[in-house]
Design goal:
Length: about 280
Amino acid sequence: MPENPPVPLTLDGASLLHQMYRMNWKAWRGLSEAERTRIAASAENALKHMTGGQQTGDATALYSQLGHKGDLMLVHLRHSVEELNRVELALAQMELYDYLELTHTYLSIVELGLYESSAKTYSALAARDVAPHSAEWNESIAETLSRQAQAMASRLYPAIPQTKYICFYPMDRKRGEEVNWYLEPMADRQRMMHEHGMIGRRYADEVRQIISGSIGLDDWEWGVDLFAQDPGIFKKLIYEMRFDEVSAKYALFGSFYVGVHLPVEKLGAWLAGTL
């Protein structure tokens, strides 16, 4: 039988952009109260147009960021990268933007991995002696992806969860000379990802997540957004996952960014330090 490809099928959905800003508080405080009020009101009005459509995969959320990595985090979900670019340009036109320094961004696409479906589909095609990447193979794969995309549309184009806290971090799978995730047999990767997912399921009532792929789009391979009402749950979940084989042996983590949800109508209060 033909040898199955090592690459699992994936589904792509909404485009996702994270923006982290540092506020120039000294310059902001140097403005008159009237100027600060006017600029804040203008920014609130502009951002209100971006934060609508929370159920359509077309939304923006603001977070007051904790720590030295920045002061304000914006998370944008859109249906295309072009739309994200228009969001960037629209934000740059706000007068408030003159007082914001962009410290970090992350571009990715909401992604669902289909290890189990891939194994079943590849095995079924191999049993029929269908050569990988042939016309018949490609047609069958396209049908599988189309069927799965329809069934998982709400996960591919999610709303941004309206929880109090967010934790975002990028990550890689190791691909060194001795430990290389991409050289492991697909069956082993499928098993490890299943075990990894079972840990997450135990926290499903407390944590919502959005996994996005960024290979070829940004510096890491995936982005992970966790949403919860209790920030302590982030520590518990990620700590437990560190003991999981796929994380303990194959995972590399980037910086973690944590924020408190900031309703756009409270932006003026945030700017005044009166939340």
